[in-house]
Amino acid sequence: MYILGIETSCDETSAAVSKDRNILSNTTVNQIVHTEYGGVVPEIASREHLVLIDKVVDKAIHESGIKIKDLKAVAVTNGPGLKGALMIGVNFAKGFSIANDIPIIGVNHMEGHLFANFIDSDNIRYPFLCMLVSGGHTQIWLVKGYQDYKLYSTTIDDAAGEAFDKGARMLGLNYPGGPEIEKLAKEGVIDRFSFPIAKIKESKFNFSFSGLKTSLYYLLKNKSSELSDSDKKDLAASYQEAILNALIQKLIYVSNETGVKHMVISGGVTANQRFRSKLSNLVNEDKSYEIIYPPIKYCTDNAAMICVSGYEKLINKQFSDITLDIYPNLLMSE
Ligand code: KG4
Ligand code: ZN
């Protein structure tokens, strides 16, 4: 079954075509216009989506080699995300659905990240733990079956990606901060500066990254001289290490609690190579762990994952209709 996927929840305008879970084409435009503002400007994101959406969809369909009439459904992200940005994708998909007389399927963006792990795969093995680490979320879910999700961990303040972005900004780096910090950290010393892993009173599974950001702020504020290049590299490496250690520590806690050692990791931060190598070390130390993550190109926002998540809904006959609304604050289990 051929599916058109559309993703416009933040600052990527993306469309993809899949045959079941196999991706035939995926076109993603990263809206670099936001770089000069140091973060995503919601109103500009919506306008850019509006300019780009029909060209991006055309390109994805053209490159897939199929005809519009072959499509079985159009799947579109309807939350969580930026209101105006979501609206562009959803309204475009509604028009596409009416014009071509095919059903529309609303897809949860976070569920999309989860299913990014199953792009091009034949089947999905449950149960597993799913860690979602993006610019807006840091969560660990126990996934017992399709749409049978239990939330074990979440952040009580900033998301991990947000901690990368805010830290990068303090270090004078560009947005998005994750890749910038990673680049700098490659040549830095990971234990020159100490950044604490927050302990949360209410639940040891939860995350907190705002203290980390504050530590960096005071370190920079109280410095006695201008930062050298090597100071910056060491700061980036130590800061990155603290975020990644927190992610891995909580993942192990939840794994111990649930007894589940099969894990999938998704979201923009999963593009981080140091994160991947630390996860590999974990598996090398304890072979009973099995950890998978999507190819780098499917870690950050893309429509391929919306196709695959839409396919899951299609085979479960979960269609939306023309009244499909947007939900900027949707949880994965909703
Ligand atoms: O999933 P995503 O593309 O968008 C959201 O739904 O938020 O994630 C974007 C986040 C940003 O905070 C960005 O800094 C972070 O993922 N990110 C990274 C890397 N690439 C993207 N963080 C660390 N290392 C990276 N290589
Ligand atoms: Zn995302």
Structure summary:
By secondary structure, the chain is α/β, with parallel strands linked by helices. It is built from nine helices and ten strands.
Oligomer: single chain
Class computed from helices, strands and strand pairing: alpha/beta
Gross morphology: globular
The set of bound ligands, ions and cofactors reads: 5'-O-[(R)-(carboxyoxy)(hydroxy)phosphoryl]adenosine, zinc ion
- Main beta-sheet strand count, sense and barrel state: 5 strands, mixed
- Helicity level: 40-55%
Low-confidence stretches: none
| Cα distance spanning the termini | 26 Å
Total strand segments: 10
Count, helices: 9
Whole-number radius of gyration?
20 Å
- Within the largest sheet, what's the order of strands? 3-2-1-4-5
Can you write the helix and strand succession as a string? Answer: EEEHEHEHEEEHHHHEHEH
Tell me what you see in this structure.
- This protein has 9 helices and 10 strands.
- By secondary structure, the chain is of the alpha/beta class.
- It has a 5-stranded mixed beta sheet with strand order 3-2-1-4-5, sandwiched between helices. A 5-stranded mixed beta sheet has the order 8-7-6-9-10.
- The chain starts with a strand and ends in a 19-residue tail after the last helix.
- It is 40% helix and 19% strand.
- Bound molecules: 5'-O-[(R)-(carboxyoxy)(hydroxy)phosphoryl]adenosine (KG4) and zinc ion.
- 5'-O-[(R)-(carboxyoxy)(hydroxy)phosphoryl]adenosine (KG4) is lined by residues 10, 134-136, 161-162, 164-165, 176-179, 182, 267-269, 271-272, 300-301.
Keywords:
334 residues; binds zinc ion; binds 5'-O-[(R)-(carboxyoxy)(hydroxy)phosphoryl]adenosine; alpha/beta; 9 helices
